């Protein structure tokens, strides 16, 4: 597929989705959203891809929603306005629920929806020049569609402050409140990404997909009998599988498992 607003770079088992609208700091409109949806769907189906990186070309990761598009959508009939917002909400859901590990590579602005994209990824690596904020209230808006992912990343208490104040969140604070996992100097961004990617590639792909769905199922569920049973069934299922058989045998034989180096 040809993309107008994205560039997809596949290197071995890593697929990088570059937001490629640098003149507008990778602000996203309906075109960017629909291309992101298509790219994520294609990556989900590509068995070769084990790690997904979301990154931005130019000076920024993403300046969030394209404010010209937001203005236009606000002037449309209610039904069209809602349908349009659903496309963004669905794309964020797809990103968040991809079966493969996702990493946001953040530099420059990650504002509004840009902070939402970073939050919807499993891991966020940022350089010290990154600027985060949920800036929506300063525009008379709210961080509606991104809220599930931002609240999941920073927690309700921090969301109360930052959704209401729209203050810039410096990178040290972003790391402190859990939004950023790894912080580095701009010149070290790719090396830091590579360290995280290599760590992911040590793990087994189906076990990682199962770990992601485990987090989704457990994180918001009360610790009750149902949950305890579900977690027991989860591991019981996994340990009957081929991956676990190979992983356990490799450990005991003191060799690397077959999925390392792309043989999965
Ligand atoms: N939507 C549409 N256009 C945007 C945009 C957005 N979210 N963010 C930046 N742009 C455009 C600017 O209007 C400008 O366009 P122009 O060259 O036609 O004038 C261009 O991108 C460059 O932006 P500029 O503000 O001149 O660059 P900067 O380096 O001084 O600042 C930002 C960059 C991203 C910090 C600043 O543009 C900004 O704060 N943008 C708004 C981000 C935001 O609040 N997003 C939340 C949306 S809900």
- Number of H/I helices: 10
Strand order of the main beta sheet, please? Answer: 1-2-3-4-6-8
Distance between the termini: 27 Å
The description of the largest β-sheet is: 6 strands, mixed
Structural class: alpha/beta
**How confident overall, as mean pLDDT?**
96
SSE blueprint and pairings:
Layout: E1 6-11, E2 14-19, H1 30-45, E3 51-56, H2 67-75, H3 78-96, E4 102-106, E5 109-111, H4 113-120, E6 123-127, E7 131-133, H5 147-165, H6 171-176, E8 182-184, H7 189-201, H8 205-219, H9 225-238, H10 242-252
Helix pairs in contact: 1-3, 4-5, 8-9
Give a verbal description of the structure.
- The chain has 264 residues and is of the alpha/beta class.
- It contains 10 helices and 8 strands.
- Strands 1-2-3-4-6-8 form a 6-stranded mixed β-sheet, with helices on both faces.
- Strand 2, helix 1 and strand 3 (51-56) form a beta-alpha-beta unit.
- The model has no long low-confidence stretch (mean pLDDT 96).
- Bound molecules: coenzyme A (COA).
- Residues 24-25, 27, 60, 63-68, 109, 111-113, 135-136, 139, 141 line the site of coenzyme A.
Give me some keywords for this one.
14% strand; single chain; 264 residues; alpha/beta; two-stranded parallel ribbon; 10 helices
